[in-house]
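Open question from group meeting: does this chain pack into something compact, or does most of it stay loose? Before anyone orders reagents, we agreed to write out a predicted structure and look at it together. Recording both the input and the output here so the notebook holds the full record.
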Amino acid sequence: MDDLTFPVAAFALLGIERILYSYIYHFAPKFKESVRKGRFGSTLTAEPLYWKVAMKLGTYIKVIQVSVITCDLLFRCSLTNPLFSWKTELIFLIGITLVCFGQFLNYSVFRALGAIGVYYGYELGYPVDTVTCFPYNTKISDPQYWGVVIFIWGLYIAMGASSFLIPIMETIWYVSSMKLLENPRGKVLMDFVTAKSV
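Structure tokens returned:
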């Protein structure tokens, strides 16, 4: 049973981000009400801009995400030294290329939308312009989310990790967000869940 403790905990912890953003996406008025009532803490209640609350919560969640990845790489995975052979050097270069490309996609999304657009400003009622610049002029759907997934896979490849459990989990969570949790398709599911909880 101990062998399942970390994977189960990691999957749950990594899912906090996706569940929160799904909540904001589908239930923006309820999110705003939760902020006003102090459900996310009294310091966030004082913030008049709801997208900034989402951004602050996103920062806290990134700490959880980075902690899970760091624990996995340091304590669960064995890592190979990329300097021992040309084969590992090539794998390291592939990983670093993916890391850079993933970060480039993330940077491009922030540059195109600004923090207000990235953190659900439109859903929360703020004016956010529709953009057609890179990366939204490519065939990459949800470029920020793909950027995160590519970055994490690249990190594990570059480090020569012995396990890809966390990249697989992150891929599952992010694809779930793109296709269901933060997608109009998810509205049916969300309506069902809220109807059952009432």
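Observations to bring back to the group:
The chain has a mean pLDDT of 88.
Residues 86-118 form the longest helix (33 residues).
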